[in-house]
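A quick aside before the break. I want you to see a complete sequence-to-structure record at least once, exactly as it would be stored in a machine-readable document. Don't worry about memorizing anything.
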Amino acid sequence: MLALGMFAIGTDSFVIAGILPEVSKSLGVSIAVAGQMVTVYALSFAILSPVIAATAAHWPRKRLLLAGLVVFNLGNLVTAVAPNIELVLASRFLAGLGAAMFSPTATATGASLVPPEKRARALAIVIAGLSGATALGSPLGTFIGGLGDWRATMWFVTGVGVIAALGVFALLPAVPALPAVSLRARLAPLKDSRVALTLLTTLVAYSGFFAVYTYLGVAFDRATAGNPEVLAGLLLLWGIAATFGNLAAGYFTDRFGNRLIINGALTIAAINFVLMPWTSAQLWSAAAALVVWGMCGWGMLVPQQHRLISLAPASASLLLGLNSASLYVGVSVAGVVGAAGISVLDRYQLGFIGALFVTAALIIAHAAYRRISAASPAVGTQSSVVVQRS
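That is the input. The structure line, written in tokens, reads:
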């Protein structure tokens, strides 16, 4: 049930890109304005996750999980019936608050329910819901929106969230509150420039990745001919490639170290984005571009986690939480960046914006590696640390 809740949250994060044109038409706003649905949701999640983790540490885990799903479902319910963009954006903030209450708590709870030697597998099961949302939830939600309208998609997300809440209520045993950790303690690792640069790599890279993804429906409309079923198929292909890239990155990071995988993924992604104004024009080339994009984009997560855990194994959970927050800050920034790109450039040239951010992330990643190497040359290449392959 924890994985199902993560599936609902992940679907809510990624499905908006597939229904954005319909939202724009229905509410009578521009694509750029409608894209702020992604920005508000991601920003709410990113900002509130560490705050809630600190302030609600004394809550029993089951109560916090249920409260998070209730708030999440309420936010999506309001989105489904909202008559105007103002209420839609307010409801996206509410849904992001619920996701911030549920997601980090679900990860920690999943690990606490099993013996230490099985924690990695428990985490994999919980986080599989998030990666599964990219492979199945997002294209399925887009397909549902194509059959009805975008509000049907939001009802679908709400329904999955309700089922997850019922499952948590009925099946999850009582889990005591975790030791309280202050917000200051959670942010303390940021004082280490190596950590800060690694987190900045995540933020900037995913700003570039999602600046294009948020507006995928219009950036690839030449390939899809405006057909939502074709767009759903492309999103499914992107999600499958993302899942494969994530798993492959775990294997290759263990074998070759994090630096090669991070640099390789960012370099290939930057080239792929530069070519996107041309590759997005035909269905076959658009599909190939999305496969490369999905593999490189989600293949970044494992080596970034590996790098952070290598820096401070004792603070692994805090660092991975900050990395997730950085990702969602990047996603929230992406909505604004993509909107600005559409205003300044043609929508088919958003790939140039993505390439610019991904290249900047590559430069920052190299700076992080130099700081890491200066402190301990072995850190950048060690592969003995157990990394969560989400």
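Two observations worth writing down. Residues 377-390 have pLDDT under 50 and may be disordered. The chain has two domains: 1-181, 185-383. We'll return to this after the break.
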